[in-house]
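User: Okay, second chain of the day. Same drill as before: sequence in, structure tokens out.
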Amino acid sequence: MFVPFAQSPLQVLSAKAFRRSGQKITRPGSGYPDTEFFDTGRGLETAEIRLRSPECRFSIEPMTKADQVIVRPLGPGDEEAFLDLRSAMTEEGTVLAKDYRAGMAWSEYLLVHKSARAGVGLAEGAVPYTFLVADLGGVLVGSSDIRHRLTEKLTRWGGHIGYIVDPHHRRRGYGTEILRQTLCLASDLGIRPALLTCRAENAGSRGVIHACGGVVSAQTHDGICSYWLCP
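Assistant: Same drill. Structure tokens below.
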């Protein structure tokens, strides 16, 4: 994702040119022979391009392999990254983590999740669940939910597993990796196979499910597809 600090044309250079330890790299023949890459001190998350003109600076996020994503529960140091992810989803019109209340203490929210996993203090009709986030070098690029058992409502829509990917991080294979790891974690909870549901017109989500071995087992008249998957 490019964040321009000045209006200037820029040819996208391969992320392979990025180096750590502050090493400068030039890319002759790129069309910008004086282009330099610098480590910004934030590891692989961000590299900085500087052109000869000092006012022309861009920040880029290098391509990162999906297999570097780690799906895990929230921890004590995740509040800021979680709120960033929640904000990105809200801007798109998606509600992430309905159990979160604005302004609540982070330690309190972590206890909510601990109780939810144990099935304690749930709202009427709710089932025990595990909320997970997809961590890519400290950036939360998505999340998933595991519902520990099905209700009649969840059997029709929702299933055992739901997942999302931050709009800024889509089309990079993260959704497939999030689902793959979540299926493994669900299996550890004794959920095997796991039910997933998806609307027929949602090509992106269908593609993720198919990539994880899903085959439609049923489709309702209003276009809800059901899949049973194992890790």
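Confidence is low (pLDDT under 50) at residues 1-61.

User: Thanks, on to the next one.
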